[in-house]
Amino acid sequence: MVRQGNIDNPPKTPLVPGFECSGIVEALGDSVKGYEIGDRVMAFVNYNAWAEVVCTPVEFVYKIPDDMSFSEAAAFPMNFVTAYMMLFEIANLREGMSVLVHSAGGGVGQAVAQLCSTIPNVTVFGTASTFKHEAIKDSVTHLFDRNADYVQEVKRISAEGVDIVLDCLCGDNTGKGLSLLKPLGTYILYGSSNMVTGETKSFFSFAKSWWQVEKVNPIKLYEENKVIAGFSLLNLLFKQGRAGLIRGVVDKLLGLYTQKKIKPTVDSLWALEEVKEAMQRIHDRGNIGKLILDVEKTPTPLMANDSTETSEAGEEEEDHEGDGENKERMPFIQ
To answer: Enoyl reductase (ER) domain location, by residue (predicted)?
Structure first.
């Protein structure tokens, strides 16, 4: 979304993307307390995370457990804090409730599923691309094809619907999610990946997706006893000054990690030079969990069936005849 310009007020180009990272403390500000050079940490960053050296205010930095790898730590903050805030701070998840989460194979979707498993008797409905079902089937109670009529499938299993809907798609899924809510149920929009439709920014495709969004009538919400909410972790941190609240949430999550109740799902590791291919994997919804840019990793040699070649100048030259093929650069972490 940043690349396509769909984020509200992004910095002017050239910019370095990235909102979270992990690494070793190399230097400290004069007034910084509680950290030492050499500490293993993870951090939120307001852009500029895709780099070998990152600078961020101390309120966004957290020490990581000794048994947590750097790749796990880089996959941890955004996904798990987002999932925790929506489930427990906004929707008040309790025993016996039900949750519908879209993109169940993604980083937030997997974090939602893991956190739901820490509460007794929570039913998780998930949508995901069919090819991901085998890998994630054990993490959700009921799994549906993202292109199928999941509304009817959910109602067939639970006639009343669900207590919580977590929507990262937007578009016509907004109306579907609201229709599935039980009385006193909560719908939370935390993303709009359906707005990312092509390789480049298109006003017409964006407008079409936006026009499909259900127009919410407050009187209807009142009559049906439904709650509609939105959540943006980046705005909460960097625009609304809630770093103290988030630190408390991170502490709780690290406690759950230490108890081995949650664990970040890492899809794959990529060299910085492979960022184009990594972003394409996300764009194609091919990932299960988080993709990590590893500054110490060397680029993986191209496979024989990949038509992308690198010239001596470092520019990539593409054979567009092979663009329709599903290209893989490297084995993925299980």
So the answer is: 5-293
Distances (CA, A) of 136 to 120, 139, 142, 195, 304: 20, 5, 11, 25, 30
Q: What are residue 316's DSSP bridge partners? A: 310
Sort 49 into a burial class: Cβ within 10 Å, 0-12 / 13-18 / 19+.
Answer: buried
73, amino acid identity? A
Ranges assigned E (strand) in the chain: 20-24, 40-44, 61-63, 98-101, 123-128, 142-145, 162-167, 181-189, 227-230, 266-270, 290-293, 308-310, 316-318
Structure tokens at 147: 């292109």
- Structural contact between residues 226 and 187, judged by C-beta atoms closer than 8 angstroms: yes
- Over its C-alpha atoms, the chain yields an Rg (Å, rounded) of 21
- What does residue 10 show for φ and ψ, rounded to 5 degrees? -70, 160
Contact 237, 60 (CB under 8 A): yes
pLDDT tens string 106-144: 889 999 999 999 999 999 999 998 889 998 999 999 999
Does residue 36 sit in helix, strand or coil?
Answer: coil
Can you say how many angstroms the Cα of residue 31 is from the centroid of all Cα atoms in its chain? 33
Domains of the chain: 2-293 (3.40.50.720)
Q: Own/partner pairs for 169-172, CB < 8 Å, 24+ apart?
A: 169/102, 169/103, 169/193, 169/194, 170/194, 170/195, 170/209, 170/210, 170/213, 171/195, 171/209, 171/210, 171/212, 171/213, 172/212, 172/213, 172/214
pTM for the structure as a whole: 0.85
Query: Which residues sit opposite 100 in a β-bridge?
Result: 125, 165
Question: Which tokens is 12 given?
Answer: 């002017």
Where do the H-state alpha helices sit in the chain?
Answer: 70-74, 77-84, 107-116, 133-136, 150-157, 173-180, 203-211, 218-224, 233-238, 243-258, 275-283
**Interval 252-309: pLDDT, tens:** 999 999 999 999 999 999 999 999 999 999 888 888 889 999 999 999 865 433 433 3
Q: What is the DSSP letter of 60?
A: G
Q: Is 215 helix (H, G, I), strand (E, B) or coil?
A: coil
